[in-house]
Amino acid sequence: MIIKNLWKNSLTASSTTLINCGMQSLHKVTVLCYLCRPKAVRIMMNLNKKAFVIFVFSALLIAACSPKIDIAQLRQKADSTYTAGQYDSALRIWQQIIAFKTKKNQPLEKYTLLEAGRSAYRAGKTDTALIYLEKLENTGYENPEMYYLLAQCYRDIDNLSKEIMALEDYDNKFPRADRIEDVQLRLYDTYMESENYALAMELWPEIEQQAAGNYELLKSYFRLNQKLDNTSTVDSLARLILEIEPNDTDALEYLGKKYYRKAENRYNEAHEEYYANQTRTQYNKLLKELEKVTADFKKALEYFKVLYRLDPKPEYANYLGNIYARFDDDEKAKYYHNKAKE
Question: At what angle do helices 197-207 and 180-193 cross, to 10 degrees?
Fold first, then answer.
């Protein structure tokens, strides 16, 4: 009878303790069951009633209130694991922390979501990274690393519009952040890729210093100015590109066609003026114009000779044939015109 009353009182005490500690009582009661199995009960009968109750109550209190997880220790472990390059392991630790806090209805720290997203991205799990990073962004949090990781993830899944938005957020909100140069370069590339040429031109002054000696960036700026019909800038860029890469076909073709058109137009205009007024004065003017025409055709010839050597396309052969025809070199003109027909 005494044991039954003690059992009842112990259960009451354990329930109260579990409630006060905010823990679920079901799995904690197993401690009491273990302590109070028949053999243990016989031992406890040798103790006085008060000692027995204190013992059971203390056991339940310790079991109920002891922490199940050390968050601070886990965070430290996750950080060190990430630093060691073990991104999958770091992600699992952050997920353990997130699961624990979610189960306890505790708020998730922004640092936890950021690090979980970062670890997931480095582990090659883009979709998982986006879950954490987008959840973090939706809280209104602003952080350069968050925007950078979001942009990287969107690039991986080929979502250009969202990548642009993330890059713009980084550029606009954190213009002095560590990765700003890389972000602005990528933002420029996305503007070009999405044909937002006006925005690309607006951004150019921010990255212009990085273009010095940068062949690919100069080529991109060359194409941008072609799209916007900035002729004078295109001319200077074409020559600058050829200083870096003499066999760049885009620059060679641009300058070759430029001088060919200039020479051809001047040739036709000069002859039209002469035939309209065939005087000695007009004839002398024609001769002077033809000197300029010849100079421009020679420039065009050099560009197309290199182009044809690099890539003997019919188009280039036709230009060469036309130029030699203007020089009255019938043999070469015929040769290249025949090549153009092949």
Answer: 160
Domain boundaries, the chain: 2-65, 249-341
> Could you read off the pLDDT of 267-280 as tens digits, one per residue?
999 999 999 999 99
- pLDDT for res 4: 40
State how far the alpha carbon of 205 is from the alpha carbons of 33, 144, 167, 181, 195, in Å: 75, 22, 17, 12, 18
Let me know: does 97 contact 75? Beta carbons within 8 Å.
yes
Residue 312 per-residue DSSP state:
-
Q: b/e map of 102-116 (b: 16 or more CB within 10 Å)?
A: eeeeeebeeebbbbb
Confidence at residue 69, expressed as pLDDT on a 0 to 100 scale? 73
For domain 249-341, give the CATH superfamily.
Tetratricopeptide repeat domain (1.25.40.10)
Rounded CA separation 135/122 (Å): 18
What is the residue type of 312? P
- The pTM assigned to this predicted structure is 0.76
Q: Rounded to whole angstroms, how far apart are CA atoms 39 and 21?
A: 30
Dist. CA 86–CA 91, nearest whole Å? 9
> CB-hemisphere CA count at 13 Å for 135?
18
